[in-house]
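Private note to self, pasted from the team thread so I don't lose it. Backbone tokens:
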């Protein structure tokens, strides 16, 4: 049995804007296929977004 807290077996994606790796989170379990950005800042800074 793996040690509690060992996250090395979780799936990883890279952010579409900054390229940082994102590790699967429980709150993303239903929408993991649609997750593209690591943060709200990257979502707001994506190409083609209107400036604030």
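Design output:
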């Amino acid at each position: 049995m793996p040690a509690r807290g060992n996250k090395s077996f979780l799936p990883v994606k890279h952010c579409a804007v900054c390229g940082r790796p994102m590790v699967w989170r429980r709150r993303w379990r239903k929408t993991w296929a649609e997750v593209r950005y690591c943060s709200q800042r990257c979502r707001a800074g994506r190409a083609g977004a209107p400036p604030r």
